[in-house]
């Protein structure tokens, strides 16, 4: 009996084992061949199923007996039902994209794989199909222009900057752009140069955009969001693509991408591109443009460095380029740009849960750039290498960047000084992260990691001056995030990060908390809090160089960073644009140009105007026998007059900021500190009626410690100076004679006699001052570039300043510029995105973004006076976009987009001032053939609506570009 039971048991077990069947395969996009991670594979009529992994692979083992049906679904794609006919069958499918991509798996919101619908942040994804039909042909980053909440600064034909949800500068960004997990923002510099980042659209798989603060996972400075450019895998996306572009502004380019899949475990790829074209430029025939061009130098020099470590303004240096205006159009700025990139990568997949990637490349380019200090030309060559590994839940990465910052043959420089201003840098970063589940403890998924960032910089003293030997920048951070599954529909995410900074010997905490309520697979609600920590860039800390030579060798603007406090001495004086003019004490309202500004200068070698005048007066005294005995007293009286206390020729204005004209006083600028930004957000993402994709986000941001480039020293201007030359004698008599009388009384004469003598010689005084003073005021001087003193006084927008103790003491008057740090400001904002899918090929979109306010009056850190300064987010208060995309797999395709930005009033150094509203139209038309050839014509600013992104920048017009691409 026992034997029979044992045999029966074996039979039943064997039958069960024999009854199990397995189906496996890979699910990809029908158009691109890209894997679809997270796709559902379910046996029809049951709850048995699985999901594809990150590479689109799946395996489903069940008790179902063939034949049976499985349903493969991926939100946004048409579902397919397939019959399984054998016990071990392979089913590979290519799904056709439809509307909503809510279940697409992303990696950027939490630094691990998760579905878009479950991310604790506001996310947009630009898929390969959308990128292939883009209206942009020269810069991948411009594809982001219609993404909700993203602001694209189109500064010139080939220079753009990116911001999102907050303050934006011209040069730096608080968005964190990465390429395959590698940071594209140099730590310490803080700039994202899209044109020299090596982004090749042929190799971009998708772009993941995460809006809002991200310091808890990505580190300091990620206050506005993460933009992740993800390239194509050579294993999943083998093949070759070649592209040629050409069009307006002499635009030309070529690119290629080749990927080889050796087998399922190994692949390699190479990609490269070259782009060039003409720039939008300032017009010398336009009065506003000509005024800006007048600030430029026509040569480029590598200046010498003084023993103290700063730029030597009295040495001629080494001329690197002797004529910037080679075409003779009157504008020295470069009127063309170019860039190139070449890279290669290897990918290994030794097992199902292990992927190893190795990549390296070189980028180079030349293009105009803008920062708050003025215009420049960026020229550099960059080499980089990267290694990363995903081993189960362990992620490891290290990369190295070497950027030469330009060379003597191809220098980076500022146009307004003509000085080379290179920043060569070596960047090293490493990350180690582990992701794991604890189903038996808190039912949680954990992400723990550590980051290290280092930037060594070398400017040769040209940019960092006296700080050259103490400018290394490093950050060490560690973080932990837990995702707790509170119920089937409710997740709670909590994270915390600590970063330690070497350059300020301090650290900062960045916490994060979020609730994600999944009301249904198509509707998700979020509420979150994020705190970010930020420090200023190494550039802002250490910069120490002349920014603009107002009167070369005599008066300039000196930019000094805020690693140390900029302070004004208690006895600081008002110093003029030339050392020939004596200083004035502070607080003299309405004071004019001191008389000594004229009489202290020479009319002949060794003979000052004052010597000339005294000689004429004494000659008149001695010529009259009645007054000849008074000659010694007159000479003593003239010698005893304090000429620096006598002013004429207009009135001195109150102090003002040279960059934006706002009133300022001489107040110290404290050192940099860690800035804090608290971000509160609620959001919704969903699909209504299977046709309308909706995303709505409301946020509130409270910032403390934001900083802004500005003038530190007040500037002073003379008003009412028209009479300096024509009526000089009468001015001199009226101001000089009372002092002359008092000096005579001081020698023992009675007042009546003194007045009589002064009156007697009034004609002599008039004639002497008219002859001598006019000669000085109206004789061209090498000190003023061949201009006369009167011309300089009438032309300069400012004539005097109060110097800080941090500017060089080298005989030149320096108006100090730098950075100020402010107390708290807060604002609210919203991003609303809509997309209606008419069918699988046609969609209509619209989005609207706004903030409650963009302009603020803020008090200064470390200043108890209550004085307020103007600051700005430098973004429009309201903006909206709408358009349509028609993107079938083959045949005709088209797109059109309208963009409106409300006028705003940025505070951006010399580019400050109202922008005016912008109304732009982009469009594209193309055709994709079955043989892999694609032809497109794309236009940015199709209607040629000319605008300046900021004041004093070139007018931006239309650019139409054609491109042809061949995939095989």
From TrEMBL:
<keyword id="KW-0472">Membrane</keyword>
<keyword id="KW-0675">Receptor</keyword>
<dbReference type="InterPro" id="IPR000531">
    <property type="entry name" value="Beta-barrel_TonB"/>
</dbReference>
<dbReference type="InterPro" id="IPR008969">
    <property type="entry name" value="CarboxyPept-like_regulatory"/>
</dbReference>
<keyword id="KW-0998">Cell outer membrane</keyword>
<feature type="domain" description="TonB-dependent receptor plug">
    <location>
        <begin position="116"/>
        <end position="226"/>
    </location>
</feature>
<keyword id="KW-0798">TonB box</keyword>
<dbReference type="InterPro" id="IPR036942">
    <property type="entry name" value="Beta-barrel_TonB_sf"/>
</dbReference>
<feature type="signal peptide">
    <location>
        <begin position="1"/>
        <end position="19"/>
    </location>
</feature>
<comment type="similarity">
    <text>Belongs to the TonB-dependent receptor family.</text>
</comment>
<dbReference type="Pfam" id="PF00593">
    <property type="entry name" value="TonB_dep_Rec_b-barrel"/>
</dbReference>
<feature type="domain" description="TonB-dependent receptor-like beta-barrel">
    <location>
        <begin position="677"/>
        <end position="942"/>
    </location>
</feature>
<protein>
    <submittedName>
        <fullName>TonB-dependent receptor</fullName>
    </submittedName>
</protein>
<feature type="domain" description="TonB-dependent receptor-like beta-barrel">
    <location>
        <begin position="371"/>
        <end position="577"/>
    </location>
</feature>
<dbReference type="InterPro" id="IPR037066">
    <property type="entry name" value="Plug_dom_sf"/>
</dbReference>
<keyword id="KW-1134">Transmembrane beta strand</keyword>
<dbReference type="Pfam" id="PF07715">
    <property type="entry name" value="Plug"/>
</dbReference>
<keyword id="KW-0813">Transport</keyword>
<dbReference type="InterPro" id="IPR012910">
    <property type="entry name" value="Plug_dom"/>
</dbReference>
<dbReference type="Pfam" id="PF13715">
    <property type="entry name" value="CarbopepD_reg_2"/>
</dbReference>
<dbReference type="InterPro" id="IPR039426">
    <property type="entry name" value="TonB-dep_rcpt-like"/>
</dbReference>
<keyword id="KW-0812">Transmembrane</keyword>
<keyword id="KW-0732">Signal</keyword>
